[in-house]
Amino acid sequence: MIVLGIDPGSINTGFAFLQQGETHRANQYRVIRSGAIKTDSKIPFQERLKIIQNEFLEVLKSEKIPQMHISMESLIYVKSPTSLIKLAQTRGLLISCLYQMEYFQIHEYSPNLIKTTVTGHGHATKESMALMLQKILKVKNFSSHDESDAIATAFCHLLRFPTNGPSNANVKKSTGKRNLQNSLSHLVNR
């Protein structure tokens, strides 16, 4: 299974293509490609959206993978209504790009669920998440937190999505009890 993880942002948007082998073993996960679409916060928001759209479509076209799963961080509470609106507009743009490329199965995960899945703690810092991902995936460094958050989002989906078939809904929110410790316990309890 290959998953595209997306960390939407109105300034920077992270993306990551993760592949899972036949089993849920730690060495069966591989980062195919990851990065962040970066824009300048000083340019107008509409121009940033155009940059994000163009670059995200280029990423999707260059990695066209049939039957790829999509996982995206869900909207979070922010103090500024303006920031929330911009984030929602960016997410809508990204979903539109996915639909344009005929990817209709989009799964959403809350930031706390992603953190719990990766680190075992729902309020983990970005640094501890990145460190855990570096250990699990044998990746040296990430270019930004946007990139590592996208990898975490894809990894969360790989651990939580049932492997016996695709989901029925277009946008699905996961609330399962599966976390990293439970998913990889067979490696620790030998």
Total of domains: 1
Order of helices and strands: EEEHEHEHHHEHH
CATH architecture: 2-Layer Sandwich
- Tell me, briefly, the overall form: globular
What would the average pLDDT be, to the nearest integer? Answer: 85
Give the terminus-to-terminus CA distance: 26 Å
Rg, Cα atoms, Å: 16 Å
Class from helix and strand fractions: alpha/beta
The top level CATH class name? Alpha Beta
The percent range for strand residues is 15-25%
CATH level-four homologous superfamily name = Ribonuclease H-like superfamily/Ribonuclease H
Low-confidence stretches: 164-177, 186-190
In terms of quaternary structure, what is this? single chain
Q: Report helical residue fraction.
A: 40-55%
What is the strand tally? 6
Distinct helical segment count: 7
Side-by-side strand order of the widest sheet: 3-2-1-4-5-6
CATH level-3 fold name: Nucleotidyltransferase, domain 5
Largest sheet: 6 strands, mixed
